[in-house]
User: Which sequence fits this backbone?
């Protein structure tokens, strides 16, 4: 029968993040699972302001926009205000220099971070971007503090034992402090004894990053998926919008690497078939019976979930959506519910729905001959 194992047990599929691309498996394999629980499940293969507007106003999407810049918005808006302000100030300053022709000024910026030997400016940009990947590792049960992300912010915002005001210390101090943190702490953590170009360079297709074809290479399987089907390239915000990420980082940066990772696979250049993916699996339009979505307000992946700003996916009894103040997959940790009321509410609501759905399952009637 639907959602039933041979031993009479009912199948419930619990998945997190992009595991089988969230709701894709439930949608594409009807009857295999009786119910599903999606924690921070990404459903839309491509998310950007333009894509959302196309959907809201029913305009045809005439271009694939693979820039998932919205990944950084929950970080920018929920990280310590002083750190956010100073990072944006430094990034804007560097953007201005990198858009110019003063090579001495450009070299001075790179050298400030101990990255003077990084050849390409976009590789320099991805080095600075690396701090923000730690945000999705934060947990509610640690009160959202500690770890590499807050070490970074403390390096910028604590001076002489005093915290900076909400506006930060300002450009001059933040630029110097960020560079000092790189030179004295972060570079060794991130790169060890590697040279800057060996650590951050993405233009040499002969490096092990591109040539490692072992079956357990998660970077390679992830790259195949984003290069072909889902996009999700995490780049800078559009011009005119505040950004934590340097403007030199655009989708072309990651699309170029697709060709290096998979030589010969993209003879005319990588072009993730995001419209096809969303057509196949419905994206934000997915409507599936007995599928519970749990998302976090501070999750950087929220823009690709049914809780994305502007997506306006309704929460119903057949497909409920619950949002906590959490980070990425915070609801899966029972400890989150012991310290945060919003996480506990999501967890309790999920258990209530699953209990109702399991009780509603009935074995198929046996036909008689």
Assistant:
């Amino acid at each position: 029968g639907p959602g039933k194992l041979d031993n009479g047990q009912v199948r419930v599929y619990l998945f997190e993040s992009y595991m089988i691309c969230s709701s894709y498996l439930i949608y594409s394999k009807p009857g295999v699972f009786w119910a599903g629980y999606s924690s921070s499940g990404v459903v839309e293969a491509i998310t950007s302001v333009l894509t959302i507007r196309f959907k809201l106003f029913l305009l045809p999407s005439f271009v694939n926009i693979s820039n998932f810049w919205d990944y950084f918005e929950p970080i920018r808006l929920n990280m310590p205000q002083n750190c956010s302000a100073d990072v944006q100030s430094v990034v804007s300053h560097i953007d201005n220099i990198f858009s110019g022709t003063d090579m001495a000024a450009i070299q001075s910026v790179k050298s400030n971070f101990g990255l003077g030997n990084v050849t390409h400016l976009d590789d320099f940009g991805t080095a600075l971007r690396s701090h923000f990947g730690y945000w999705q590792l934060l947990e509610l049960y640690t009160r959202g503090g500690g770890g590499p992300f807050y070490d970074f912010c403390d390096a910028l915002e604590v001076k002489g034992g005093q915290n900076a005001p909400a506006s930060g210390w300002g450009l001059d101090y933040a630029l110097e402090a960020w560079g000092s943190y790189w030179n004295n702490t972060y570079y060794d953590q991130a790169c060890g004894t590697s040279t800057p170009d060996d650590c951050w360079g993405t233009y040499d297709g002969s490096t092990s990053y591109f040539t490692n074809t072992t079956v357990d290479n998660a970077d390679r399987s992830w790259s195949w998926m984003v290069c072909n089907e889902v996009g999700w390239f995490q780049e800078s915000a559009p011009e005119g919008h505040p950004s934590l990420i340097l403007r030199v980082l655009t989708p072309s940066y990651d699309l170029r690497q697709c060709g290096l990772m998979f030589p010969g696979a993209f003879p005319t250049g990588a072009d993730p078939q995001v419209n096809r993916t969303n057509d196949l699996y419905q994206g934000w339009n997915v409507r599936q019976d007995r599928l519970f979505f749990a998302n976090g307000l501070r999750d950087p992946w929220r823009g690709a979930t049914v809780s994305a700003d502007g997506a306006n996916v309704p929460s119903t009894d057949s497909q409920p959506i619950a949002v906590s103040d959490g980070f990425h997959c915070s609801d899966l940790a029972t400890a989150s519910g012991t310290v945060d009321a919003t996480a506990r509410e999501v967890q309790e609501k999920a258990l209530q729905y699953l209990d109702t759905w399991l009780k509603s399952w009935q074995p198929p009637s046996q036909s008689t001959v």
In short: The longest helix spans residues 171-191.
